[in-house]
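Worked example 2:
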Amino acid sequence: MNQAPSQTLTEHIAEVLGGTPLQVVVKTAIGAFAILWGHLSNVSSVVMLYSILVGVDVVVGTALASHQNKPMDRSRWFSGPAKKFGLTAFLFLGASVIDSIIPGQFVLFGTSGYVAGAMFLDVAKKYDTLTGLNVLAWVQEKLAAVIGVKAKQDE
């Protein structure tokens, strides 16, 4: 009876994929980025809009913190957008994988529109808090009219 040679999981992955565990992680990340980049070229205008909204969110968030006399934490200028971009990239990667399984790119288009819309509403909410205007209520009213849903009334 033949016995398979004893190997650790790390050695097995290195043998199958070629390289150290770090090299395997780097290869996987590059492959995921390539898949994401190939699909994002179709929704590049929405991704650009999202990037602009994240930048506006940083500026409005900084002004809001200053207005509320909160201490300025400059590390949030980078960590906040990095977290948003990272989570959004994983969301887009998942949508890209689904779109590669199912013909068409309706999941990625829907996801990118949803993410950009949610970011816009987040910026509008911060702007409302900063200025006291009801831009968010106006946007929600207009969206409800377009969708055909009756807007929720505050009591």
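The chain is about 75% helix and 0% strand. Residues 76-101 form the longest helix (26 residues).
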